[in-house]
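Chapter summary example.
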Amino acid sequence: MARITKITDQVLFHWLETTGHSIYGGSSLKKIILCPGSVLSELNSPIPPTSVYAAKGTLLHNYCEKAFTERPDNPVSYVNETSWEPEDKVLVIDALNYVLGIIALHTGKVSVGLEVEGNLSTWGLPEVLGTMDVEVKSETRIDVLDYKFGYGIQVFAQDNPQCISYLGGAVPFIQGVIPEQELHVHIVQPTLGHFDPWHVPYATLCYMILDTIAGAIAESRNEILRYNPSMEACRWCNAKDGCEWRLAELTKQSKQLVQAAKNPAVKTKEDWIRLLDAADDIQQAIKDCRAYATREIKSTRGFEGYKLVAGRSTRVFKDKVVGTDYIKTHLGDKAYKPEEVISLAQAEKVLPGLKKSQVWKDMIKKPTGKPVLVKDSDKRKALEFTMENEFAADAEIMLDVKHLRDPFAAK
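The structure predicted for these 411 residues follows.
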């Protein structure tokens, strides 16, 4: 296949026909905004196979659509009657309940669209195509909801180019006309218990599409391209494994880290901040490299100097029923584990209705998790560290001390 040197309409159409997705699709926009040169690089890179995580996400998307299609007035009851995996049913029901709550906010005649194909042709960007998971319209509001079923990365609605592109597809651009309805986008991520709405001002919608997105697309088609490799830009880029700009940046960052380790005292706080960013990029690159080598070996192309071997595994019975009966016969009561109560999360999977019970909610508390170092741009709330907090922590520890004995006291 000849190398693509220029992005033309013919090239874009061929990519769409081959993959079923636009190279300028909503899910790619953030990457393109950060690194416009990535578009041409991806067009010249092999298309990776679908991951098991993506396949699972697609399955859960389909479940949500099917429930609404089969029983639009009560999709949750439909889910409860299926033979789907219990864990899948819990996630789908959580997603559907959120969607139903948004639909209830509308008044008058309400239209609900599922898996709605949209584009930004009225905004002058017909190449930006995408599918809205749920689109809800009435005289008072327009809501676009996007399902996310990943466990790893929490996704937020605000300033999200993918959400904005979907909303733009639902709100045609007409010069001088401002829609009367309120505009809202939502991230629905039940795997993390995360449901994130954003009320979008029309001026923000216009700016993000006509300036930010349009500008990045135009820049991606320039003769001289800008590349800006980073963990955020490269994470979902199909060209990252062979990207010379990423390799050059990682090489530079690696040298800086080595130098810092040798002479830590000469580094300023600002230097260390930059090095932390570099460390994140390098750690991600190592993961990507291992994944790439594994894919190459599994594809039979091989990866020089490396091979895949079988890791540790647990022994199992050839016939589970026969083996289990043998243990019961020879061990008697000792064949059974001590009885224990299932976990909080397992209980909610067995009885999904528990999540709605106020009595159940009142019994639960969620301790603060172990501190995780992230960048300021992360939308999670920062932990506060004060002397009062430190004293309180010490006091809590002291409560666990049953008796303090003076080592110098008379015996």
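To summarize the output: DSSP finds 15 helices and five strands in the chain.
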